[in-house]
Specification:
4 copies of one chain form a homotetramer. Chain A is an alpha+beta fold and 159 residues long. Chain A is 21% helix and 39% strand. A 6-stranded antiparallel β-sheet of chain A has the order 1-2-4-5-6-3. Strand 3 of chain C pairs antiparallel with strand 3 of chain D, so a sheet runs across the interface.
């Protein structure tokens, strides 16, 4: 198949024009993120980046950023990326995610980005990657595949 | 196949008789775990449990325990479960994990348990589950499948 | 937490009393399964087993059962396990699955079992395991975690 | 971090100059692939594509390509992509993979591509995607994250 065409992009534009303010406000209501020192740096349709400075409080026994801390911020980036494309009154829940750790997370700061691959009515697939920056050089330290659910009409799950 | 036999258990006993003290000391060197308020409650060959009281600082925007916090402690439980069966001088690294969120993590306290399914020379498979306790009733809120690597001879990765 | 209670089972009984006949008929409409020689041996609420005899046509380059063949039958077992608890007019689609290969799949025959962990209105979580039988001894060769979706009202996806 | 640099590529060149012939020969020894009608169309350092024409024998009950068939060929593409970077005498085993199904696999033909993300001495991470072509248009129907192991010195696992 030398003539295999390039796959079509499948993302539709956000149906909620106020998606950025909504997503940023929701992020600000996550105590776990603020406690870790995470900052939402970019919100675009289907794509969100969160930055995190190195903090010894977030490390494991070898002095690297804890895999759980990486997973936590990457999960948040993926969830909010999905949320940008959801209705204004919807909440987002993580159904599942898978994370591969490619390299020890050594660095001065980290960037976590989630990018929607396909947004369905109920289920949204998101890819994520975590980048460590050290001495001006960047390295991918983890990748994630996440499945997010659009939740509507539940009092306990709002945006 | 009505006569299919029950699968053989495949775990060998720990080769390091001091595995419990080693694993507990390593857990105590994880700042991220102590900062979260996690406590290692059980260490047995191939099985480790970590408990966590509810803390609003660990929640997401809906008031449930953050999925990242769940993943973090479950990853630790799985990693240390693998570590119990490793040589005394080995370090453990998470290659990858997958987590499914079965129910919102509401509860007064949580128990995270990792159980080794198969321990190889280099690669160990571990199952994990997270249980929420509320009003005296327990509920499984997440399950994990993790792959851990035995690391030896690297100065930056020690137990 | 020495007094942590055992988690509640969360499965509700099948709402479709004719679930077994429905699931078996659906299995019989999967050409890929019959071509592989797979046979559905057990259908219970939330649990389905499929057996497969060894066939050199299903092997990889080392002579073991191909990982893809294992994943295929395990995916089917998990999907049909989910289907047993779905409405009579619903179809089932696999959202995602993760599979860990614990041991080379050598054996005379194999049993693949899917067991529902949690059945929601839209999303169902299923655990699966693959067992190889050789010389009267059984060994777990793979485990799966799968997420299934209940599909209703779509002409192209029926049971 | 507006100045976050682009992550470094981390792939080293193949150490086995005969990687292409070796990988193609190994593919030809997988009865399961030839039985499915799969054809290896591209072998490059760290990247392999396999094509598959639609075949009703490979479908599930809705008439789409069976998820297991997709997973099987994608697993093969990922495994051989990893193999291109391995030593000439090494075998490759799949440790685990995760697959997300993005859209029903309808099409006249399919292309499965594996791309190495990081190649370590023992463990290699590979991303995969499956593309369906229908009426001259392509659509991504599934993505995979796989972990492959380099196996040396075992008589039962050779390239």
């Amino acid at each position: 198949m030398p003539d295999t065409p390039t796959p079509d992009a499948t993302l539709r534009p956000p149906e909620d024009p106020g998606y950025e303010a909504r997503v940023r406000a929701s992020f600000d209501r996550q105590p776990f993120m603020s406690r870790m020192g995470a900052e939402m740096t970019r919100v675009a349709p289907g794509e969100v980046s969160i930055d995190l400075p190195f903090d010894v409080e977030l490390t494991q026994q070898h002095g690297f950023l804890h895999g759980g801390a990486i997973a936590s911020v990457l999960d948040a980036a993926c969830g909010f990326a999905a949320s940008t494309l959801m209705p204004a009154d919807a909440g987002v829940l993580t159904i599942e995610f898978k994370i591969n750790f490619l390299a020890p997370a050594a660095g001065e700061r980290f960037r976590f980005t989630g990018r929607v691959r396909r947004a369905g009515r109920t289920v949204t697939f998101v890819d994520g990657d975590a980048i460590a920056v050290a001495d001006g050089r960047a390295r991918t330290v983890a990748t994630m595949q996440a499945t997010m659910m659009t939740v509507q009409g539940r009092d306990d799950v709002r945006h």
